[in-house]
Structure formats: structure tokens, C-alpha cells
Specification:
Elements: E1 6-9, H1 24-52, E2 55-60, H2 73-92, E3 98-104, H3 112-119, H4 133-146, E4 150-152, H5 155-166, H6 168-179
Parallel strand pairs: 1-2, 2-3, 3-4
Helix pairs in contact: 1-2, 5-6
């Protein structure tokens, strides 16, 4: 007791709207929570981790930081920012004994989408069964033990990341096709 070994930055508001219909104040609030919240917590804890010469910062990102989808641009941008922060911070902290791990859990069985609805976004249903939070927690602990840089938990997420890297046009086509005929 008495020290911080692992900081888990798990902040997330969702917003599902076309960019042109997004209220700027809502987008700013989402960025303040999803990105600036991570920055604030990291800045608060980092001096303690530096003093003890070790520790881990786990940032909870999203697969949507790798592949943005229609009506998720603002949310994706916030998680892209967390991804960029994680990459830069990892390099800044090289040799300090402090690891930076980005975890992209995919669709998790939490009230995230219900809260997104209250926030003003469109109702969204996922074809995927949500990952239990306990599974995500175990994956985070495993990533910490292994000192991994990045973790994508779900098979659809891993497949999407693969397609984004090696077949981006095919991925865009597949996303557009899956969205065809859907209302906002």
C-alpha cells in the first residue's frame, strides 16, 4: 500500500452522429472526457511513477482508433488522440521503467451504449456479443505482466486492424456496405 503501481485510464463517452449534425459543445465535452481526462490523470500520477522508477500506464482505447466508422467520427477522433498520446508517451518514458499500454477491448458488455443514447446519439446495436468486463480486466492484467505495447481483445477487432493495415480499401468497402440503408 501507499504507492501507485498501475494507472488505468478508462474514460469514455460515446457519440454516434454524422459530423455535420454534431453539436460542437457536445464534441468538446466528449474530447474533454475521453482525451483530456487521460492527460490529466497521467500528469497527476506520472511524477509518483517517476519517483519510484517503475510503473505502468494503461490507456483504454478503442478499435475505432484504428478504423473509424460512419457516425463515429468524433468518438474515433477522441480515441485516435488517446492512441497518439500512448505512442508518444511510450517513447518519452523509454528507459524510465514505466510502461505505456494501449488496450482496445472492443464491444464490452457495459452500459456504454445506454449512456451514449442519453448523451444524444442514435441508438446503435452491435452484431457482436459484448465481452464481459471481467474478461477485459484479465486481459489488462495479462498485458501488464507481459509489458505489451498494445492489445486488441476481440476477433472482429483483430480482423478489422488486419484489414486496415493490409486491405484498407476492402475494409472501407465492407464498412460502407454494412452501413448501407441504415438510418442515423
Amino acid at each position: 500500500w501507499g504507492r501507485v503501481d498501475i494507472l488505468v485510464n478508462n474514460a469514455g463517452l460515446g457519440m454516434r452522429r454524422p459530423v455535420e449534425e454534431t453539436v460542437l459543445a457536445d464534441a468538446q465535452h466528449l474530447m474533454d472526457v475521453n482525451f483530456w481526462g487521460v492527460v490529466r490523470c497521467t500528469q497527476a500520477v506520472l511524477p509518483h511513477l517517476r519517483r519510484q522508477g517503475r510503473g505502468q500506464i494503461v490507456n483504454i482505447g478503442s478499435i475505432l482508433s484504428i478504423l473509424a466508422t460512419p457516425r463515429n467520427a468524433i468518438y474515433s477522433a477522441s480515441k485516435f488522440a488517446v492512441r497518439a498520446l500512448s505512442d508518444a508517451l511510450r517513447i518519452e518514458l523509454r528507459g524510465t521503467g514505466i510502461d505505456v499500454i494501449l488496450v482496445m477491448p472492443g464491444y464490452t458488455d457495459t452500459p456504454f451504449f445506454e449512456n451514449q443514447y442519453r448523451y444524444g446519439g442514435a441508438v446503435h446495436s452491435s452484431p457482436w456479443k459484448g465481452v464481459p468486463p471481467e474478461t477485459v480486466a484479465r486481459a489488462i492484467l495479462r498485458a501488464c505482466r507481459r509489458r505489451q505495447r498494445e492489445v486488441v481483445l476481440t476477433v472482429p477487432g483483430k480482423f478489422g486492424a488486419f484489414l486496415k493495415r493490409w486491405c484498407p480499401r476492402l475494409l472501407d468497402w465492407g464498412i460502407a456496405r454494412s452501413q448501407a440503408g441504415r438510418s442515423v
